[in-house]
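Deliverable D5.2: sample structural annotation.
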Amino acid sequence: MGNFIGAIDQGTTSTRFIVFDQNANIVASDQKEHRQIYPSPGLVEHDALEIWANTQEVIANAMRKSGLKSEDISAIGITNQRETCLLWNKSTGIPYGNAIVWQDTRTDQICNQLAANGGIDRFREKTGLPLATYFSGPKICWLMENNPLLLNDIEHGQVLFGNMDTWLIWNLTGGIRNGVHVTDISNASRTLLMNLYTLDWDEELLKEMQIPFIILPKIVSSSEVYGFTQVGLKNIPIAGDLGDQQAALFGQGCYQKGEAKNTYGTGCFLLMNTGTQPVISKNGLLTTAGYRIGNAKPVYCLEGSVAIAGALVQWLRDNLQFIDHSCDIEPLARTVPDNGDVYIVPAFSGLYAPYWKSDARGVIVGLTRFINKGHLARASLESTAFQTREVLEAMELDSGVKLTSLKVDGGMVVNDLLMQFQSDILNVPVVRPRITETTALGAAYAAGLATSFWKSTDELLLNWGKDKEWTPNMDQSIRANIYQKWKKAVTKSFEWV
């Protein structure tokens, strides 16, 4: 057995391969971005073949750079952007078009049609989810309606569906030569097709969306051996599979009921462990499968999803060219003492939690002649913190748990200004762990537990250490005032489309 665990982190903007040792230190990594394809406003696609090629490349590069061999790797875990949906041909391995990304809004009409008979929360009791363009089920409907080839191929048993975890596991375990077609409960719970209680595809939901059972992967636990690598690395067990946000929760060691983490990436995702029973939200949050280790009871979460966080910084960089690099946002924001009374609501693809308004669009409010780039940079960072507070308030109402501190991870947590403002606006300490690559780490942990590389979650908790903590330092009246203005700004984004 090898001394290391590998993790493939297939994210929205890039794919990474990271190798961890027994103490969760990173010993090798490589990363490659893939194209973001925008056919028209509101549509977002990825080329799944490009992602598969990049996956093979980053594995090879990380292994080469570190001098590690296949036999040094004990197991591989996979974590992925969730809800990004793909159909492909089982005999050729070729996708039926690009993958439809989680941010894409093309299924708006399909969701509205489904909601016409029972409302947006029609399936919430079974799935924990509202009807929204975010989830994969309606995306499958759209692909089937818009590709005449598909129905014939489905009848002949040639079509497979998967999110990115399923696509990569299938390819890694042989692809057209008997690749394993599976997904774990955390990813399956984001399709609008899985029943949270049976942890299986739900016949009624499949019938409503007219999705054939034959194309769906088998639902498995988040930590078990699914198959062995046939490509790149030789015969390594693939033994962990978690959607990226659940993986971050697992990597942050949130194994007790009431523990929560927030990941600041392309979007922003706050998850709280609610134990072995699903808590159905009354306040606009998602109820989601958290993880399942082998045959143990599943663990559920409440989740608040914010569609645009780091993506707003990318937009300032790429579309407006305010900055050359994402890391330039903090120095630019520090050129001013506050936001100059400007608020940016980045509803680029509608608003997610707690509003779920797909007809909202982004707004900038409070502009005057006084405003400069610095104010807009600062308002961009603050919008992430404001959105997090809205989600956290909903979570406290649903769970009855008052959060005493917030564990944070993701690309934006290197931004001191944002983290301090986050602590100020929440009025609780914000804690960054020693290892910020918690998403990849969570996938590694799941794979390591399945192969006895690590013995228990207690052993995993020994790896968690605090790197930095921010404590609130804002006057209560200022906090209340700026948050009230934020809430007012949000209402200006409603019903734009």
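Annotation notes: The chain has a mean pLDDT of 94. DSSP finds 16 helices and 23 strands in the chain.
The annotation will be released with the project's public dataset once the embargo ends.
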